[in-house]
């Protein structure tokens, strides 16, 4: 859900801020010293650092759904505030100021998001999604302390608070799966997980092939794997 919120904010910043994806990056990583030292071009950073229930929108009134003589009691969704610290990063302070102003203006144009205009699972939100920018939320930590924890210099920025709903009856039917990278090739020692890819074998001359590996065949225009790719 949160990653879909990131994608939605990124889309708003690029489209309403009229920013070029080829020239400017939008990042959601923690803006610590290691991160900023790796920047290669102007970047908008939107770091989500806090998640709290919105007590003003809290309601515990139960909803009773009846099917014949059977009644089911459910409670309304929890309303959660996600707080982002939005900053701009560039080599020149003038560029940073222009970039942060564009970003602030882009988000300020959307005080409320309709679910159908969002990305991914946010389309299933039961209410419109409010966006509050430039206001210090309650329980806001001291910014000097926050930047000290990040081990980085303070930057001009603003907060953006987005309120989402979480269904209390939500049930996960599938296990959590992260993005993975699969490598394919041959290995003399599988336990070491060191692979020699087929492309390397095909492009390597017989004199350079390590002992124990079969060199590509010179008959029929290459190895069996190479001939399969040509078919």
């Amino acid at each position: 859900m949160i990653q879909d919120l990131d994608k939605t904010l990124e889309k708003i910043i690029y489209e309403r801020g009229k920013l070029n994806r080829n020239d400017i990056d939008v990042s959601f990583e923690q803006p610590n010293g290691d991160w900023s030292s790796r920047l290669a071009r102007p970047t908008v950073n939107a770091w989500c650092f806090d998640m709290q229930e919105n007590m003003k929108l809290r309601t515990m009134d139960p909803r009773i759904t009846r099917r014949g003589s059977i009644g089911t009691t459910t409670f309304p969704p929890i309303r959660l505030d996600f707080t982002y610290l939005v900053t701009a990063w560039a080599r020149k302070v003038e560029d940073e100021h222009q970039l942060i102003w564009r970003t602030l203006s882009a988000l300020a144009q959307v005080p409320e998001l309709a679910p159908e205009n969002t990305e991914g699972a946010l389309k299933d939100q039961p209410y419109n999604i409010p966006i509050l920018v430039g206001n210090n939320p309650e329980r806001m930590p001291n910014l000097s302390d926050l930047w000290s924890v990040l081990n980085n210099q303070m930057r001009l920025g603003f907060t953006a608070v987005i309120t989402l709903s979480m269904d209390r009856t939500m049930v996960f039917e599938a296990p959590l799966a992260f993005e993975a990278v699969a490598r394919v090739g041959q290995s003399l020692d599988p336990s070491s997980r060191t692979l020699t890819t087929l492309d390397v074998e095909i492009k390597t001359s017989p004199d350079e092939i390590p002992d124990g590996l079969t060199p590509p065949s010179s008959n029929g225009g290459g190895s069996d794997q190479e001939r399969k790719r040509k078919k």
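The two ends are 43 Å apart (CA to CA). Helices lie at 2-16, 33-37, 93-108, 143-150, 198-203, 224-230.
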